[in-house]
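This entry is listed as follows:

___
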Amino acid sequence: MTDTSSHASSDAASDVAPDGTALLWAALGGDPALTGRVSYGGPEGLLPARLPVRELAGASVAVCSLAAAEHAARREGGAVPALRVDDGAVATAFVSERHLLIDGRAPETFAPLSRFWRTADGWVRTHANYPHHRAALLAALKTDEEGVGRALAERRALDVEETVYEAGGLAVALRTPEEWSAHPQGASAARGPLVARERLDDAAPRARSGPLRVLDLTRVIAGPVATRTLALLGADVLRVDPPRLPELPDQHADTGFGKRSATLDLDSRTDRRTLGELLDGADVLVTGYRPGALERYGLSRPGLVIARLSAWGDDGPWGARRGFDSLVQAASGIAVLEGSEERPGALPAQALDHATGYLLAAAVLRSLTEQEDEGGTRLVRTALARTAHFLVHELPGGAASRPSPGAYAPERWLAETDSPLGRLRHALPPVSSPAGATNWSRPPGVWGADAPRWA
């Protein structure tokens, strides 16, 4: 890869890790003494919001870096080193899709029908980036694209939510934090742990002689951010998608760094056998589909670390529903808190996706560390709705003030790389690699073009 930019740390004064890092590290079951190894620095005023988004972003990257350092120290011997988290690198990575250029072209981050709309009694947020979700939305409303606004203006937001869901589409009524807390799904998210961690048996860890093998069955942002991070840390990551459900090309270009990409049709007996063989050779399985969607394929193996991501959580009436960061923001009250009297707002980044992705990668690394001592097949689970609850109700409102080194210039945390997709300008990874890697070892390739086998 060609790296035309340095991943230098800021010269600003540093301070000790804020409370968010300690809270996330505790959720991961980590030794609390290790959080003293983390310091922060970088430009002030990044990811501005009413909610503590900068603190969430920095803390999620911090615990991921700390988990990586802890795992490396456990395998290689020695102490966990001091770590520095640069707010500039974090902020740039949390909006990586906005910095991406493909041969000079900026990608489209949201399709025209992915937005807030007025309804007869409030607001609704739709998501129609994928063609099949767009078709389901239009079918539910019995209109074409030009008529969506008129159709929604005549309906109640909660009616739209259910009608579109029943049609296989995605729409969520805007709620206040209080309304979401009273909703059964909001209550379910509040009850559950931020990171659910289970030891399923006493199996021995998988024997490894080469890189960590990660089978990636995720889509969109959060899961691919987790596996992109594991690839930075040296893992052999193979992403597998259904051939008839391609990833959005620009999204793949943003999150496909460090990975290979293959397709398997799990309706085919031959491809199911291939998936089983991949699982037999894997150390980690990361899934990002709705809870229960892949259970019939028998994905567990003794000694595996299984990491599972969902939008709404495993429990509650919405446990089986699809969801995206923007929809969780609308449902959980974040859009109200970040909006105005005139219209709903949004976080300055898809921070639920990115933070949950780094948290999931950290959970994988911590599980691998625990396996070294205790063995056992491991299951870790995170959900965007639970991260939203943490942001709104549990994360302290700000860290200690830090001096600013000057205006924020994202170029220092960007690089340009040649790839099979074209010349890419992209954000550099914010996570500290124990091996010293400051960029991925390979650019994203053509989606689905790799063979479904381990390197």
Summary: Residues 1-17, 398-405 have pLDDT under 50 and may be disordered.
